[in-house]
Amino acid sequence: MGRHWRFLLVSILLILPFISLSSHTVKNLPGFGDLPFQLETGYVGVGENDEVQLFYYFVESQRCPFEDPVLLLFAGGPGCSGLSPFFYLNGPLMFDYTNFNGSSPKLLLNPHTWTKVLNIIYIDAPVGTGFSYSRSKQGYYISDKQWVEHSYTFLRKWFVGHPQFQSNPLYIGGCSYSGVITPLLVEKVYEGNKEGVRPYKNIKGYLLSSPKTDWFVDINFRVQFAHQVALVSDELHESIKESCKGNYVNIDPNNKKCVKDFEAFSQLIHGLNALQILEPICVDGPSKNRRVLEDSETILQSFPEGSASWCRGTKGHFTRCNRSLAYTIDIFSVVEIHKYLSNTNLRALVYCADQDLQIPHISTQSWIKSLNLTISDTWHAIFVDDQVAGYTETYQEKDYYMTYGTGHAPEEYKPKEAYEIIDRWLSYKPI
């Protein structure tokens, strides 16, 4: 599958000159032909002297593009290309796996694309992701905070170049690791509007899918989640809780009982697909030869991130995320940002998956409850086509939604249900 993925990327690059600050309309793609929707690609310069060039793919809504909301959507990572959600989550095209014969891949229209009701900007961010690049070596050194700054500049310049969309409702979305970046960018846009930064951005809210939010909380809750889904026995769970005192991230190597219990826990989950515990593991997990006790935090953080399609319907191995970025993590929690945003008039939709060990839904529920929001609609089932699609609870215009029977990227596992939910939410209907 790797050569076919590269074939599509090269095809897009041939359409757009490599070094360009202008936008280009893509009218057709190999494997599909003429596109029945509007696709624009381009670069926006950010950073000092515009040395960083961020690549984007903009798909106009297939309904009312100049009225429908604009969604700036980040993939996970850091380092995952915007082509990942474009082809695998909610974009207008998808691979034709059924008729794949080993030659050039064919593309199909995605019947559940979010671009039916949304204008979506898919972005290769941070720099070094996908087709985004720096004109200097120093420009490739990036961090959480710089990613936010670059994205804010990107948005400002993008709207300057697309004034016809400036009055559209704006939403910002992120999944997995970009759950750290998204709320910070939302705060910056919101505050920028208050300070009179131009152009004005009609920010209405944000949405987060299986979001990384707090490094300690998200990692630590994996032990409790593993017990709840019967991966860990009652006896071991009680023992590890007592011996480690509820801290499974910063384990004291001198605490022999905690070390032993944690090693037993690690062995139990070692062979699982952390993204969807009911499916086969599709990428290399932690090395079997590495001692579990060397660094408990590293072990818990080393679950592979990516997508179910790495083994669901594909052949061979390919990489859609750059894991060699010169990246510095300098933000370890955005819970306080969520507290701030909860007191604004911005809407929020946070959803996660019940089979995800990477970002357990109970960790997401934990930080949401820490915000002390008032519940306006209590926990209840959501139905799509008369079938349970998940469960939801609403807090003062902030909706939490747990998808049923899905993995780390719910849109990929249940695309129809995900589309129905987002359409209801954008229409201000109960989800």
Short account of what is shown:
This protein has 12 helices and 16 strands. It has 431 residues and is an alpha/beta fold.
Secondary structure tally, helices: 12
Number of domains: 2
Helix-strand category: alpha/beta
Low-confidence stretches: 13-20, 283-310, 314-318
What is the architecture of the largest domain at the second tier of CATH?
Answer: 3-Layer(aba) Sandwich
Helices and strands in order:
Layout: H1 2-15, E1 23-29, E2 33-46, E3 52-59, E4 70-74, H2 83-88, E5 93-95, E6 107-109, E7 119-124, E8 133-134, E9 141-143, H3 144-161, E10 170-175, H4 181-194, E11 203-209, H5 215-228, H6 234-244, H7 256-269, H8 296-301, E12 326-328, H9 335-342, E13 347-353, H10 361-369, E14 375-384, E15 387-395, E16 398-403, H11 410-413, H12 415-426
Parallel strand pairs: 4-7, 4-10, 9-12, 10-11, 11-13, 13-16
Antiparallel strand pairs: 1-2, 2-3, 3-7, 3-8, 5-6, 14-15, 15-16
